[in-house]
Amino acid sequence: KAVRFSITVMSVSVQAEGEEEAVTIFRESKPNSELTCKPLCLMLVDESDHETLTAVLGPLVAERNAMKHSRLILSLGGLPRSIRFLFRGTGYDEKMVREMEGLEASGSTYICTLCDSTRAEASHNMVLHSITRSHDENLERYELWRTNPFSESAEELRDRVKGVSAKPFMETQPTLDALHCDIGNATEFYKIFQDEIGEVYRRPNPSREERRSWRATLDKQLRRKMKLRPVMRMNGNYARRLMTREAVEAVCELVPSEERRDALRELMGLYLQMK
Ligand SMILES: [Zn+2]
User: Which of 17, 56, 238, 249 lies at 20 to 30 Å from 47 by C-alpha?
Assistant: First the structure.
C-alpha cells in the first residue's frame, strides 16, 4: 500500500506592528491540485501498521512540532520579519484519524472520532452531537491509559479514556470527512425516498411489511433507471449516484402527489447547491 503525506500553503496573512488584525494576502483556490499540494513523504506502508507509520512519519512530526512552537526571523526588504506557521491537519479519512489520534479501530464501542458517544448512545441520539474530542485531551487520556493512576479494572479504565489506546501521534482537525458526510446524507435521503413512495405522511406507523415493500420498489426503480444495485450498507459510490437530479426524477415517477414530487426535487436541488 502507498501512503502519501502532502502539504499545501493554504493562506498567507500579514499583521503589521501595532495592528490588531491580520490581512490575508494570499489564499489558495485549488488546495487539492497536484500543482499546489506537494508530497512531503511517499511511503510504501500499511497505514494501519501503527509502528511502521509512526517510525516513518516521526521525523516529520518532530519538525512540524518544532515549527509550531517557534518563529522564523527573515530579513525581507531590509527589515527583519517574524514568520509563524500554523498547521491544520485535514484530508484524513476516519481510519487515518483513528490511527493518528490513538483511538481504537472503527469497530470500537467508542464509535465517534469527534465526541465520546458510544454505539448505544449514538443509536438513541443521532442528531445532537458536538465536537468534544481534542488532540490534547487524547494525549492526556493516553497517559491515564498507560499509567492507570486510580488502579481501575480494564473495563473502568477503558471507559475513562473513551477508547484511546495508543499514543496520539499527530494532531488532526476534528471535522467530518467528505466521504462520511456523503454517506450520512445519502442514507437519510434513501429513507426519505422510501417514505415518499409509501406516502408515509398520510398514514403514520406503517407495518414492517409495508416498509419492506416500499424499499423493494425503490431498489427496483433505481436499478432499472440508474443501474444502481442495492447495497447492504451505504457506500461512497452509491451515495454519489443517489444524490443526483437523475435519481430524484426516477423516484418522482413513483411518488403519487405532485406537491410532494416538487418538494422532493426542491430538496435535492438545495442539497446539490449546498454541496
Ligand atoms: Zn459524535
Answer: 238
Would you state the pLDDT for residue 128? 65
The answer to whether 45 touches 4, Cβ cutoff 8 Å, is: no
- What's residue 123's pLDDT? 80
Q: Exposed, middle or buried: residue 76 (CB in 10 Å: 0-12, 13-18, 19+)?
A: exposed
pLDDT tens for each residue of 178-196: 777 888 899 999 999 999 9
DSSP strand pairing (38-44 vs 23-27): unpaired
pLDDT digits (tens, 9 = 90+) for 189-242: 999 999 999 999 998 899 999 999 999 999 999 999 999 999 988 888 999 999
How many A from CA of 130 to the centre of ligand 1? 6
Distance 216 CA to ligand 1 centre (A): 31
- Does the ipTM exceed 0.90? yes
Ligand 1 midpoint to CA 143 (Å): 23
Q: Among 242, 247, 264, 246, which Cα is nearest to 195's?
A: 264
**To which residue does cell 525581507 refer?**
76
Taking the CA atoms of the chain, what radius of gyration do you get in angstroms? Answer: 24
Paired with 26 in beta bridges are 12
CA 184 – ligand 1 centroid, Å: 13
Query: How far apart are alpha carbons 242 and 236 in whole angstroms?
Result: 10
Ligand 1 centroid–CA 161 distance in Å is: 15
82 φ, ψ (degrees, to nearest 5): -95, 120
* Residue 82 DSSP one-character state: E
Phi and psi at residue 258, to the nearest 5°: -60, -40
Under a CB-based contact definition with an 8 Å cutoff, are residues 160 and 196 in contact? Answer: no
